[in-house]
Structures
1.
Amino acid sequence: MPRKPRIIIPGNPHHVTQRGTRKDNVFFCAIDYQKYIDLLGEWKIRTGVRIWAYCLMPNYVHLIVVPDNIASLSKFVGETHRRYARYINRRQDWSGHLWQERFYSTAMNEAHCFTGVRYIAQNPVRAGLVEHPEQWRWSSARAHLKSAADPLLDPSPLGHMITDWQSFIAQPPSKSQLKQIRLSTRSGHPIAKLVPGTGVATTTR
């Protein structure tokens, strides 16, 4: 069966997520998380993708990123995940797939970008790993809530639009907001308003 085309809107934020195969862990120690972050940093530069938010969980990742062209998102995630899988397989003496299927993505409008930032920041709390989002080391919530430097993050409008990060992150998304972002991410259908006349770019990767 041919792959469903991936819809990419260059210049718009996209929510990206991917799990480990069979929902198994993809990170096993602090060195692994840092290796993945290093690869994100390398490939965002090489592909022109900007990173606005992220959260790395033991068996999946969430990213909010902005591709600058139709090909950059798939190249960015694909190369990062291929190289990370190679690193893990070599170290563990494994073979086969580390990641489950291809990654999910959806373009977002401003309101749903805010929902996405809250959603991924609260993931470690919902999973019972920490009590507060900023306690999770492998998340942009630390930088947003503590004004800590994070070289992985790029400048974004979020910093100017959100004046109180503590209150913003603490406000849980509604059930309907969570449902929409989850369904849209899995289906790939954009939750973004297109600029008239620009059209929608697609790719099968």
Note: The helical segments are 30-47, 72-92, 110-121, 123-126, 141-146, 158-161, 165-170, 175-187.
2.
Amino acid sequence: MDEFDRDPHEADAGLPEGPGPDDVALPGFDTPAETAPKAGYQVLARKYRPQTFEDLIGQDAMVRTLTNAFQAGRIAHAYMLTGVRGVGKTTTARLIARALNYETDTVKGPSIRLEPPGRHCAAIAKSSHVDVMEMDAASRTGIGDIREILEGVRYSPVSARYKVYIIDEIHMLSTAAFNALLKTLEEPPGHVKFVFATTEIRKVPVTVLSRCQRFDLKRVDRTVLADHLENIARTEGANVEREGLLAIARAAEGSVRDALSLLDQAIVQAEGDGPVSAENVRDMLGLADRSRVLDLLAAALQNRARDALEELRAQYDAGADPQVLMRDILDYLHAMSRIKAVGGDADLAEAKETVQVLSELAASVSLAGLTRLWKTALTGLEDVRSAPDPVSAAEMAVIRLMAAAQLPSPEDAARLIAGGAAPQSNAAPAAPEAQPPSAPQARHEAAPESAKAEPAEPDAQGPSSIEELMVLIERERDIALKRDVERFVRPVTIAAPKFIFEAAEGAPHDLGGRLASFLAEHTGSRWFVDGKAARGGETLYERRQREAREREERARRDPAMVRVMTLFPGAEIVSLEAPPAAEPIAGPDVSPSQDMPEDPIAQERRS
């Protein structure tokens, strides 16, 4: 018999049992039975998996809906559970399977109350019940796997009330598998129920979603999750500081499984029988001390640049991740905004001392300023994520926060500009030179330079200027010719019937011919058009660019604009618009020396 045909469970014939001559016991490697590790240890995420619907935390809306449906006998044939990782989708699917098949000596129908455990509860909880099939669509994605389910659907359950098919990560199924499932999912036999779970609900076809009753499992609130962790830690005989539990809840981002895994790791951080401190948890998670982050934020808002940057560098040297630092700053700015908006009803998951400090900081900043700071910090977080040197990006973000915190509110800025006073700073720009007082202006001021007179309509003989030519082209809606004339025509002479210009670089080679044809067609006479002249004027496009530069330069020299740029360092002029022209005062001008009634007292004296 070949050696590969032997039963692996049979002992090798002819070989002595027990240790051989080479099996020498090595001192220090023999583990005594009394010191061997405990067998069958379960991690907290499995040990404390909910066994009833009452044990589910943070999913009250779903539990209430299912309870009412079971009590009313309105049980759907398919359920779709969606949510982020670790919020209880698979656990809820098994609880639904247990509720559908719940049976005791006194309960003979589906029940949402699973205490005491029914006949089928233990097997379903262990995923070993013959009538409750679980399939992981992440590893079984093809149509062949779905065909196995469809073939089994025809047969009645062996011992339970319903055959329940639980398909986890259903969004991983192929298109053909989804299509094969549709008909059975729409009209399943009465003894079949489907429960689907997915983290990517947008990838599930609408045709499948429309055949299911959908439940969106929520992220668990930080405070609720911290309370849950505290109860489990107490049951395990571990003492974890409340601040450490809140740090775990924040890091878990609403996932109960993630939080329990982190708690499992945190419990072993204690030295001996001592408590697990918040510092132990922060070191484990690579987090910064949030109280020190609050000190950093306070220094930035109070414009203490040296203190803020030194605190940032000290936390980085202690192992804090710059991204985590920026996220903590964002959390605090968000909390300050809530305090500013709703006052004492902010309902923050922070210690009382922290809330007090945040309230004091929020009192010194306007709500608009807080929203500006939050946006600045959010941009800083994105910079830290993409920067080659994250800590340098974090320092720049803190510096921008300090600059943004010192900016006045729009109301204060308007008052300062109207009053002609600029805020004092360590590096204020030089004040503009004093201008001599201008002469008294006449009552009727000249129209502003930007208000150009509209170009006249071309006469019957044809246009006599480039502006009149543009009016004619616009009236005839020749868009292509209008664009080319604006950019490439430098006029020299335009007088009917002759048009001489210099063609700018890049001009179309047929521009002269197109202009001649256009003028002949719309003036009724033949024109001589020459585009090879030299030393022409500006094109209309070049003129507009020059005028825009001149307007911006005048605006920059304007005293009011100088004050605005001083109030808002780094501000840029994006566009300039002429103010609307003032309405003229109706009626003729009346000079003080005419048409005024004589003083009655003067009349009396003369008389």
Note: The domain at 290-407 is CATH 1.20.272.10 (Zinc Finger, Delta Prime; domain 3).
